[in-house]
Amino acid sequence: MLSTGGVKRLPLADGLNSGLIAYLDPDPVYFKQLERLVDLEVIRQSRLKVLVDSMYGAGGGYFKAFLQGGKIEITEINGERNPSFPGIQPEPIAKNLTKLSNSVKEQKADVGLANDGDADRIGIIDEKGNFLNQHQVFALLALYFLEVRGERGAIVETVTDSRMLHILGKLFNVPVYETPVGFKYVAPLMIEKNALIGGEESGGYGFRGHVPERDGILAGLYFLDFMIKTGKTPSQLLDYLFRKVGPHYYDRLDFHVSPGDRQKLTNTLASGDFRLTIAGSKVAKVDTTDGYRYLLADDSWLLIRFSGTEPLVRIYAEGHSPEQVQKLLDSGRKLLGL
Asked: Which value, in Å, is the radius of gyration of the alpha carbons in the chain?
């Protein structure tokens, strides 16, 4: 046993020989768990053409490993694991998935699936090459469990998530709970309420019966099963969702702020007149659970909050058209004087 600067060190070979260190391959346990949660054989035999962008991350190879041996066609890009993430930002959002989007269109694939670096988030590209935003995917997965699988249980979302989930909660008579931003708030409430699904704006979703954490691989498998069970393409699924809850669109703006500016902006929000209209809609309620969220009479909303990890102020908006969303974001900028 060596000691360097007060830290005890042991050669790896000695640790292995003495039994102090052991290797563990978690894949067999993980594979068995996912086979219990979703019918992988149905997906394997589906004849879907699926493109996967693993973004050089930890999820590389998993979709192929789960679904090989059947009639489904899986093509993977950026599949080798590389912690330098060469030439990309490993976040599965629209601006980072141009290659996947173009590949889906060029190869006439049925769907594109993307995972981030640690594979706990999912991004979906529809058969036309369009990105389904994280709110739409969250609502679609909730609809899958509630309608296709016939399961019941609470939905847990953060304050930055879609009002579509509240509408689904009313339609299927299940409760919807809101938390501050962060899965560290979502997971404990999921356990407490035995929730069916929990998620956040980043595109990370957790599921009942699984670990209380986000899993982008499992989310992708559930989405494929949703397509198969309904016989619908991703764009058709979105249309189906909108027929149930109405059209909902979303966007976000980020602005760098200094510590001094942050305090000034906080004071501006705290002293604001909440009896106002935003983008032509009356403010029905102001929620200060995490930032300042203005819930409007037409069920659209605007949220202004400061990042807990970066020197940023974020302006979020959800509306019933892309044009309304942009008007809401512009109103948020004006409220802050940006």
From this structure: 22
- Return the domain boundaries, the chain: 27-245, 249-336
Q: Is 333 left (phi over 0), alpha (psi -120 to 50) or beta?
A: alpha
The tokens 């609809």 sit on which residue?
Answer: 143
CA atoms of 73 and 57, how far apart (whole Å): 21
For CA atoms 267, 271, 276, 281, give the dihedral sign: positive
Which residues are CB-neighbours of 160 under 8 A, at least 6 positions away? 181, 200, 201, 290, 303, 305, 316
Residue whose C-alpha is closest to residue 238's, from 122, 130, 97, 152: 130
Rounded Cα distance, 104 and 114, in Å: 12
CB atoms within 10 A of CB 299: 18
In terms of CATH, what superfamily is 249-336? Alpha-D-phosphohexomutase, C-terminal domain (3.30.310.50)
What strand order describes the sheet that includes 292-296?
249-256, 312-319, 301-306, 292-296, 281-287, 277-278
Q: Which residue spans within 14-152 are E strands per DSSP?
A: 49-53, 73-77, 111-115, 122-125, 131-132
Q: What is the pTM of this model?
A: 0.91
Tens digit of each residue's pLDDT (9 = 90 or more) over 112-167: 999 999 999 999 999 999 999 999 999 999 999 999 999 999 999 999 999 999 99
Distance, in Å, from the CA atom of 197 to the CA atom of 94, rounded to the nearest integer, reads 23
pLDDT-wise least confident of 61-65, 184-188, 309-313: 309-313
Topology adopted by domain 27-245: Alpha-D-Glucose-1,6-Bisphosphate; Chain A, domain 3 (3.40.120)
Place of tokens 């962060």: 182
**CA angle 241-243-246, nearest 5°?**
85
Burial zone of 57 (CB within 10 Å; 0-12 exposed, 13-18 middle, 19+ buried) = buried
